[in-house]
Amino acid sequence: MGGLILHRLLHRKSFYIAILIGLFCSVAYFYTDELFLEESIEKDGGIAFTPYTKWMGIGGISDYPTLFLFLLPVIVSLPLADLFASDQRTGYTPFLFIRKKASLYFKALFGLNFAAAFITGTLPLIVNLYLSFMKFPNIPPDRVINNEMPLVTGYTFFPDFYYSHPLLHILFYILLTGLFSGVWASFALSISMLFHNMFIVVLSPFVLQFILNTVFTTLGQDQMQASSFLQQQAPNGASWSAMCFQLIGVMLLSLIIFLLGVRKYVRD
User: Fold this and answer.
1) C-alpha angle 208/211/217, rounded to 5°?
2) Cα separations in angstroms, 54 against 50, 120, 144, 169
3) pLDDT digits over 143-163, tens only?
4) Which of 16, 108, 130, 239 could form a disulfide with 223 if both were Cys (CB 3.0 to 4.6 A apart)?
5) Integer Cα distance of 114 and 123 in angstroms
6) For 17-43, what is each residue's pLDDT tens digit?
7) Which residues on neighbouring strands pair with residue 59, listed in sequence order?
8) For the whole model, what pTM was predicted?
9) Which residue intervals of the chain are DSSP H helices?
């Protein structure tokens, strides 16, 4: 069953559209914010522009990282989150359930949906990081030369780790983005157990994030917004408690809704 769903994923246009949207943000950011940067050693007293200080995941004021994070809940839901809703509309699921166990279908769908979202969310960051290393010298960031970057406690996770092992720090943020991508796609998939409309399913994690961000802003807790703490240089601050609350909370909510929906189809 897993092979069948993987085959269908690789033949879905929405999977490649999602990847292209992410890659557009990645390459556009490199072109507008990195490609034409010129180092001024006399002015800076050293190397200010490195992959660790200019890659897309660092955040800052550029439009493209903001656009990428804004669209990310929708982008990662495009590859596979609406597959069950589509199968229900076309009557394909009864055919599958007759031939194979429904439990195998749902297990494979949940796992591959998470994996597809993880890849879709992290690939643009990995591509941009590669381009950044092609452009800039591989020199670790310096606390003095790069002192304009507020990578301190409260504005990034593990700030000391960033200066001692910057590449691992970047990989941590890529992993974190991938996990949130998988969680958002899982939430969208769970909503498909309730609604069989593709637009409702794909937009559901975006609506969830909008509601959470509105609540956090109303409470004066902007650091709890995922669009902030998923950036290495969090503009509104980074909160461990908020990150864990959303990552675990939304995943548990998704599993509960998904499992309750699966019970209608799994008889054994």
Assistant:
1) 135
2) 6, 21, 16, 14
3) 776 655 657 778 889 888 998
4) 239
5) 14
6) 999 999 999 999 999 988 888 766 544
7) 233
8) 0.91
9) 2-10, 13-33, 41-44, 51-54, 63-75, 83-90, 92-99, 102-135, 159-164, 166-191, 198-218, 226-229, 240-262
